[in-house]
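Ligand-bound model needed. inosinic acid.
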Amino acid sequence: MPVAIVVGVQWGDEGKGKVVDFIAERSKLVVRFQGGNNAGHTVIVDGRKTALKLIPSGILHPDTRCLLASGVVLDPEGLLSELDGLAKLDIDVGPKRFGIAPEVILILPYHKAIDTERENRQSEGDCRIGTTGRGIGPAYEDAASRYGIRLADLYDTANLESLVRRNVRDKNVYLREVLGSKIQFDADELLQSLQTLGERLRPYLANVSLEVSRANESDEYVLFEGAQGCLLDISHGTYPFVTSSNTVAAYACVSAGLGPREVDMVIGICKAYSTRVGGGPFPTEDLSADGDRLREIGREFGTVTGRPRRCGWLDSMAVRRAVRLNGIDSLVVTKLDVLDTFPVIRIATGYKLDGRPLDDLPVTTTETEQIEVIYEELPGWQQDTSAVRSYEDLPKEAKSLLERIGVISGCTISGFSVGPDRSQTVITDERLLELQRSGRLP
Ligand code: IMP
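Prediction:
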């Protein structure tokens, strides 16, 4: 029953796609379980770059089938343009390679308008979340309020018209009267475009829960790919500066319709430093020249929005929390090479509030912004690691950093990466290597 889940332990952009791509080779299924096209992965194989937003990174392996589970929110136009883009690169994205749970909630044009108009409202000032503007939050709101239109509804013509009319009517009132927006939608136009989109998406409909369960019963390998990161989780992140879904590993089971006892392994992806996009507390943010250097060297600009990411040091309080919340077995530390030129590397080892040490992140934004971070400093290695392909060949200071991350996070380190290419991800843990070679857990 080899079921593994890959999740980010920080605020997203940890390099999950690269690691999923690396270990997905022998997977029967790679399943995306939350979020929408707010995420972005760039996977580089033999120098060729592929940008993915919604489609799991497993799509680059010809024998892997990629699925979107019910907890995803789906922008039909965004997805179709992503599929077209991949087809142009000669990647097979036909219905044998890709499937979608009919239960997914659709992101429709009014969700995107509400997302951006809300963010633009002057009156919200500092409360601005800094969303990606992709309509993610408003679509999840509709799911919770039972107003949402699901992919399956596109094929229930008797019901679709009244659903669309009710939504367009209410969203127009909200946009106009509450948000003071001039943007308004036309129900007939939307209905027509949904019918066209529905026909293009029809071949992709898939019973995700059944497929996952059958693969699992036949001992085939299923890999779940998380988007965003643990601290953007709606229940456990730095609320309200979070995304609108649960990003933690347990949600893979909820979304795919899989019992929690079926999961064999949870792999956490941890960048060797920290980044965050958008608003909200970021205890280890470095606003000095070092933060700028991390951004430049690490090319820390959003894949989806192009926004510069806020940069800072590895936060072991956050990583420890993520290890606990996700039940992580091992961590892969990414972007180690970004630290190559730093003479001193900082790691946050603890927090204090009003002089008292804390066991965990505070719950409120006010308290989180007031914490004093305790750092330790480790010597850098000041040499190029981008050509390193084994743990043994790492400079001793880099090995010490990985060991230290292992100790302070209370977790095994199962690999590291020293660059964006597939060949620059080095897996050191036998269990993970075995998984990559054979698709089976030993
Ligand atoms: P939303 O998911 O677009 O609603 O944005 C909510 C918050 O999550 C914002 O701070 C975004 O910058 C952040 N966010 C969403 N997706 C990603 C991602 O893939 N990487 C990093 N931050 C993200």
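The chain has a mean pLDDT of 92.
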